[in-house]
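Action item from last week, closing it out:
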Amino acid sequence: EPLVTVWPETPGGLNIHTMPPALLRAVNRDGSLEPLPPGDVEALVEQRRSVGFADKRAFLDDPVFGGEPLEAVATLLGESSSWFLLAARVEIADREQRLYSVLHREFRDVRSVLRASGSL
């Protein structure tokens, strides 16, 4: 299953509040391509679940990162999302249908940019 998608718009940051564990593993000190150990990722997920992170700086200051420089990766992170994939499964008359919508939120307005059925 893909973890990162690209949409034709100014790049947005990866949301620190919703990134899946596989993406959290890719957040590491400047110059390192080695993924975070699974235990460190679990600690970040638990911290996020229990009390959360006040902001991006609080996330980057987490003890998991051991005070290492993270300025390069910091530019790739964000604290909000404006693009979403709605995946729905419906069953009508014993038949299953999958529906997908790419949604874009701007301020309080949400619009469907693309809709598809079957598989995306």
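Closing note: The longest strand covers residues 95-106.
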